[in-house]
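chain below, 176 aa
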Amino acid sequence: MVTASTTATASPAPAAGTVRAARRDDIPQILTLVRELAAYEREPDAVEGTAEGYAQVLFPADGGPTAYAHVAEVDGHVVGIAVWFLTFSTWEGRNGIHLEDLYVTEEHRGSGLGKALLRSLAEICVERGYRRLEWWVLRWNEPSIAFYDALGAEPMDGWVDYRLSGRPLEALAGRR
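prediction:
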């Protein structure tokens, strides 16, 4: 598995910013933006992640990472993130990328940094032969939906997303 540090390190971005693979010292800023995203998505108290947890997943001491991040940086400050992980299509027999979160601070929206972050992931997909770049978006998030539609992304209306967590997850695992 290729680590985030070996992915594209400087994707073309608007003149005001740069997109690059995240580094360990970006974790506090990444976590700040995750909290901002949670507030934007009307779940301000939902973030349980910690800097230590992010470090274990993005930059583990042994083995490869299980998630990756790219950041958009302006004047030395991280103002956008794309947090992602690999998926696998049994039908295609190939990996893909699931974009867990894309977020650009309000003052930098419309600057092209969101598109540059997505472009960096599309570049990885094409370079590695991955067939898909996928993500979810909340139905009420019309600005993001319009942005994704303008890129040519297609909503997957034929699928219903499911989640198993908390007590039902523990019960299925035989822990309750």
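The two ends are 35 Å apart (CA to CA). The helical segments are 27-40, 51-58, 113-128, 142-151, 166-172.
thats it, cya
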